[in-house]
Amino acid sequence: MKKEIIHVENGPGFEKLNLPFSQATAYGDLIFVSGQVSFDPQSDQLVKGSFEEQVRRTLDNVKIILEGTDSSLDDVLKVTVFLTDMKNFGKLNEIYRGYFPDNQPARSCFQVAALAEGLLVEIECIACRSK
Question: Does residue 14 register a pLDDT over 70?
Answer without folding.
Answer: no
